[in-house]
From TrEMBL:
Record Pfam families: p450
Superkingdom to which the source organism belongs: Bacteria
Full protein name: Cytochrome P450
InterPro entries listed in its UniProt record: Cyt_P450, Cyt_P450_B, Cyt_P450_sf
Family: Belongs to the cytochrome P450 family.
Provenance organism: Paraconexibacter antarcticus
UniProt cross-references to SUPFAM superfamilies, sorted A to Z: Cytochrome P450
Length: 404
């Protein structure tokens, strides 16, 4: 592997998910690595890859030096910058903190625990819909409808709107995947985002006329320093909540089930003792983080891992790498449901630590627990395929036999 010419974010490395062999090499030989660009988006500047957990922690906690305000995505040729910058994860304090605070009360562990009966009911309903089937796609037939209804209920969507919004979010986050976006970025910007905005504005108008207790109403009636959010800021906040709710749990759950099917000894441990499910969830979050990176931009010249970072340089924190750091984990590529590790799947601390951790953990616990109970002999029925994305790290399809 020629580290001088290596471009970590090139699509060719990501066709089968995160390139763990590349990250293993970088952690040992060049833990802070410079890529000269991104082949599929030639307009993008080069960037630094941060691959070890300790360095990811450093970048995460120092927002004054490593800013989110330019873009939190590595490529500047993906999701439109106006939309990205309208999301609170695309802001620095103090604005980031003020907008994030609007949602925090609804996402505390205590508040989320009250939703467990409803989430179990949603999961039960979707699993019962598979009755009589021998096979299904675990991504589209089970995970997607569960997570879409859960976040849809938080946002106040009608159930019939779950699939259209999920499809739209999948297209948006899979902006570089030729199957999800055959027309490329231009088609996404011109044809997909405008209808999403129009649909969102109809929801906004409905809430302004008839306020409710859902998250959409929180956005519509939020005040920051005496000012209401603009329509674009509301849209950005809505898309952020929908994207996080649709993709994060779906991604980690399907990779978890794949790992359990590929390691039947680990599944047997869960079947024999369901109290291990929370530990299995943490191990899955470590090994299969839903988002492969977040980017920061250096606000001044600095040094990281002995490398000279210049003002304006892009810096990518790669979580599939930091979560398999040999300095943190023994035998890091081994899936071990008893490990119960700390990890960086929700970020590495600091201002941008994930708002939805309690909800994600609860959904994953319920989904994994109910799947192994109801389908203890589930097996892989065909070749899994990945979304080609350096951001949204998830399976696109996972065909399974429900009863072995």
């Amino acid at each position: 592997m020629d580290l001088e010419t290596l471009r970590v974010a090139d699509n060719a490395l990501w066709e089968a998910g995160p390139p763990h062999d590349v990250f293993t090499t970088l952690r040992s030989q060049c833990p802070v690595h410079w890529s000269s660009g991104i082949t599929q988006t030639p307009g993008d500047a080069g960037f630094w890859s941060v691959t070890r957990a300790e360095d990811v922690l450093t970048v995460s906690k120092d927002w004054q030096t490593y800013s989110s305000a330019s873009n939190f995505l590595l490529t500047d040729e993906g999701v439109p910058l106006d939309l990205v910058k309208g999301m609170f994860i695309g802001m620095d304090p103090p604005m980031h903190d003020r907008i994030k605070a609007l949602f925090q009360r609804a996402f505390t562990p205590k508040a989320i625990a009250r939703h467990e009966p409803a989430i179990r009911e949603i999961t039960d309903r979707v699993m019962l819909s598979l009755a009589g089937r021998e096979e299904c796609d675990l991504v589209t037939d089970l995970a997607q409808p569960v997570v879409a209804r859960v976040i849809g209920s938080f946002m106040g969507l009608d159930p019939e709107d779950d699939k259209p919004w999920a499809d739209a979010i999948n297209t948006l986050l899979g902006f570089g995947d030729p199957v999800l976006n055959p027309g490329g970025i231009d088609q996404l910007v011109m044809e997909h985002i405008p209808p999403m905005y129009e649909k969102c504005m109809k929801l906004v108008a409905a809430r302004r006329a008839n306020p409710t207790e859902d998250m959409m109403s929180v956005l519509v009636f939020a005040e920051i320093d005496g000012d209401m959010l603009t329509d674009l800021e509301i849209f950005a906040g809505f898309v952020l909540m929908m994207a996080a709710g649709n993709d994060s749990t779906k991604a980690t759950y399907t990779s978890t089930m794949r790992a359990l099917m590929e390691h039947p000894d680990q599944r047997r441990l869960l079947l024999d003792d369901l109290s291990l499910v929370p530990s299995a969830v943490e191990e899955a979050l470590r090994m299969f983080p839903a988002f492969a990176h977040f980017r920061r931009t250096a606000t001044k010249d600095t040094v990281l891992g002995g490398c000279p970072i210049k003002k304006g340089d892009k810096v990518a924190m790669w979580y599939p790498s930091s979560n398999r750091d040999e300095d943190r984990y023994e035998d890091p590529d081994r899936f071990d449901v008893t490990r119960n590790p700390e990890h960086q799947a929700f970020g590495a601390g600091g201002r941008h630590f994930c708002l939805g951790t309690a909800l994600a953990r609860l959904e994953l616990k319920i989904l994994v627990e109910e799947t192994v109970k109801r389908f203890p002999q589930m097996s892989i029925a065909g070749e899994p395929s990945w979304v080609i994305s350096q951001f949204s790290s998830q399976l696109k399809h996972l065909p399974v036999r429900l009863h072995g």
